[in-house]
Design brief:
Helix content: 25-40%
Largest sheet: 4 strands, mixed
Oligomer: single chain
Number of strands: 7
Strand content: 25-35%
Number of helices: 3
Length: 154
């Protein structure tokens, strides 16, 4: 009888090992703790093949996702400035302010890329000026774009 058995880890938080990794552990540890608590399963040919197939699919999806993010980043970096026209009154004050929604609509109109409000980081803009805004494409990818607020009268 073997002292150690091979198991496949089902959770990412098990001893700093990632999901799908095959490790050898003692029989008692495997059958009394890991398998009943759903942290691992016994490694047989079919399950090993199953986890490898899913890990390959996950890698391909991750690669496709990173390529799409790089395309979006390059398209946003090509924008030299975002120009938004706002109505001004007699005393040279702007009606309202520029919000994330205005910037999202401008980007969608000219690049056909949709963003969410939380991805656009701007300060309160209540006057006619030129400022910088940050567009967060992914958690660690941020692009800075120039924002120009231009006046117009009716």
């Amino acid at each position: 009888m073997k002292k150690k058995v091979q198991i496949i880890i089902k959770n990412n938080n098990f001893k700093k090992e990632h999901k799908g990794k095959i490790i050898s552990v003692f029989r008692g540890y495997a059958f009394n703790y890991l398998i009943p608590n759903g942290l691992a399963s016994l490694a047989n040919k079919n399950q090993i093949k199953h986890y490898r197939m899913f890990s390959e699919i996950a890698k391909k999806e991750e690669e496709a996702n990173s390529i799409a993010i790089k395309k979006i980043q390059s398209r946003i970096e090509q924008i030299s400035k975002i120009t938004i026209y706002k109505k001004i009154g007699h005393n040279k004050l702007m009606f309202g302010s520029v919000k994330e929604k205005d910037i999202i609509n401008w980007i969608y109109k000219y690049t056909n890329i949709k963003f969410e409000k939380k991805q656009i980081q701007i300060n309160d803009i209540n006057n006619i000026n030129i400022s910088l805004i940050n567009i967060q494409i992914k958690q660690n990818i941020v692009v800075t774009v120039k924002l120009c607020i231009m006046p117009y009268n009716n």
